[in-house]
Amino acid sequence: MDTSLSLARGTAAPVPATPVAGAGVVRIADDKAMLRAAADLTRDLVKPRPSVYWGDLIASVALGYGALVVAATSGSTAVVVVAAIVSVLGLYRGLSFIHEVSHMKHASVPNFRLGWNILVGVPMMTPSFMYEGVHNLHHAKTRYGTVEDPEYLPLALMKPWTLPLFIVVSALAPIALLIRFSILSPLSLLSPKLRTMVVERYSALAINPQFRRRAPEGEAKAYWNRLEVAASLWAITLIGITVAGVLPLRAFLTILGVASAFAVLNQVRTLVAHLWENDGEPMTVTAQYLDTVNVPPPALLPALWAPVGLRYHALHHLLPGLPYHALGEAHRRISAELDAMSPYHKASYPGLPGLVSKIARSTMVRR
After folding, report:
1. Strand partners, 348
2. Are 290 and 253 contacting, i.e. CB atoms less than 8 angstroms apart?
3. Does the keyword Chaperone apply (predicted)?
4. What does the CA dihedral 124, 127, 132, 133 come to, rounded to 10 degrees?
């Protein structure tokens, strides 16, 4: 199988391709100068700042939940629309901390995982076990971009209609999560076969339909079970109080609408997080970096649609242990250190429209 990665972007020179012996595959060689600079220039940035994590999370959810209440109760259409938008952005930012939770050493920010699950994970029916133990596979050097990567699909190589379907289906995520926790969780206690299916196929925030999750063990299993019970009880309660009229139907539908909106927003961000040009072969770290996207300043909107450091997604793949609040400074240092010919600069893009257009064009060119 022949593998190619388009490098026709930016102003830097092409990264040399290296033949893989006996495989007939052309791979992008690792740029050791870039990898070394990224590590050396950021050694003092690796320590997370608990005050930043807690302050950001609490402010995000306070804004998100407060605006959600306004959207669900206001009699003014204009106020409802504005409040709904604010709620979507606030809760989306709060939810995005699941990415940090999946990477951090929990002792470095004590009780943050617990606090995040209480404030966001359980109420939004996306407890941290849905991402922990899954996202790290996406960062495994030999798994990225392969069939074993839970967070990768070769979207740029697929049919054009797959892109709108990829976005539209995400709007159903809140309903799917309600069903998963209010119905499938309790029923799976009665059926080992159903339990296996729930664990393997419905317990991961993954986009690869071939991915099957392994059952947790030990302390991870105990923590999973506690979170699943909490999320299941919340899902059942939410449905129950709506049916009983305690929670007005309007409020319930507003909750679903806001949740669907930030699910779609996150899916759009996912669509442009990578170039999705790999056809399943293992890739070098540099090739993975170039298949991933940074949207740095001066662009302002990425702070809203790619919050909590996600605008530096390519840099994150170089330095997955770096806390989100350090990524901006890391990018400035590395960008200043490496000359214009470095592949580091080739992963930066000006904004969302151009990225969507690039991926859409790729699906059409390859037909």
Report:
1. 294
2. no
3. no
4. -120
Q: Kindly report whether the global pTM for this prediction surpasses the value 0.70.
A: yes
Residue 144 tokens read as 């990225």
Q: What is the pLDDT of residues 271-315, one digit of tens each?
A: 999 999 998 889 999 999 999 999 999 999 999 999 999 999 999
All residues at 6 or more sequence positions from 315 whose CB lies less than 8 Å from its CB, including other chains: 38, 294, 322, 327, 330, 331, 334, 347
Task: Output Rg (C-alpha) for the chain, integer angstroms.
Answer: 21
Q: Would you list the domain boundaries of the chain? A: 33-48+127-367
Q: Are 350 and 299 in contact (CB under 8 A)?
A: yes
Is the Cβ–Cβ distance between 324 and 102 less than 8 Å? no
Tokens standing for residue 86: 């604010």
